Amino acid sequence: MPHDPYRALYLHLPFCVRRCGYCDFATSAVERDSPAIDEYVEGLVLQIRRKAREGELAAVETVYLGGGTPSHVGARRLSSLLYALSLSMRLEPDVECTMEANPESLEARLVRDVWALGVNRLSLGVQSFDDDVLRILGRAHDAEGARRAISAAQERFENVSVDLMCGIPGQSAASFEASVREAVERGVTHVSVYPLIVEPGTAFDRAVLRGEMAEPDDDAEAEAMEAARSVLEGAGFHRYEVASYARPGFECRHNTAYWTGVPYLGLGRAAATMTQNAERRMRVTDGQVTDDLDPRQMAAEDLMLGMRLAAGVSDESVTRAAALIPEVPDAFRELEALGLVRHAEGRWRPTDRGWLCGNELYGRLLDLAP
């Protein structure tokens, strides 16, 4: 269908050194020298060049190499991929280009190579600086490896993010808070904090069903998220999204694109694409349509996604949505009465309680146009 230009590009590299116990992503543990990785990267290069010829990359403003573990495929393959990308689109410094990496596969040469070829933001899957917690998670690195990876990244990159996880069985509140404090002390510019979710079919799910692992405690996770907010905001970070904190100017533009209705193109196995025009929004994964929204549903979804951001949604956005869904103003007043949103300076914003009760907040807005 005729569509608005894609402004965000996601490239999926679905390979890891091992699968963690909580992972339900489309990934597989593959040896680094496997021909399967070569074949996959070559196919991804062909997809990039094809989309460039079709004119689909001309307006891209953010690029994200995710996985899996992109750093696991090695410097040679990443150089090939990034070189093809640089020939296929405008990969200039103003284009945010993020690459995910895990500490066990982030080496100095790889850092130098990807930086030289246009990556300007690294996101490191640290999860914890506590070796006992890392063993529970089944991570392939230890705390010292995480520290070395951050230092290696900072040799070239100013924009370095780390992911941390809370609510892990066996993780104390003190351990989690110490990890948040260490991330700050290491000088990173962005921190994402995620509560553990035990997804169906994962190794953690099977352990819970066998009674070998406790289910995550919602109250403990809420307390951990509040502790993270206190530490990070006290250190000069601001919470711009429900799970993400940044120093000023280091907010992730690619992730923000997802929450603000920006069309995105996904290439690679299990990568999602969101295509839209004024009348329709479609999401497609591996050739299968997973969402097909009409204008009313698009408006409701945009309001819901906006509640993931600290900025919320503007009065103008609410007015536009209300032209399609007259119940919108009443829904916001109801959410305000429940303490889930607040209105100030021409915007509706989520409260801390709204983020903690996200299912209630997001569900109420999506239900406006089922």
Which terms summarize this structure?
370 residues, alpha/beta, pyruvate-formate lyase- activating enzyme, 2 domains, nine-stranded mixed sheet, three-stranded antiparallel sheet, 14 helices, globular
Give the termini distance in whole angstroms.
23 Å
What name goes with the CATH superfamily of the largest domain?
A: tm_1862 like domain
Separate helix tally: 14
| Low-pLDDT residue spans | none
Q: What is the alpha-carbon Rg in Å?
A: 21 Å
- The CATH topology of the largest domain corresponds to pyruvate-formate lyase- activating enzyme
Strand content: 15-25%
The CATH C-level class name of the largest domain: Alpha Beta
CATH architecture of the largest domain: Alpha-Beta Horseshoe
Task: Label the structural class.
Answer: alpha/beta
Tell me the number of structural domains: 2
What is the arithmetic mean of pLDDT?
Answer: 95
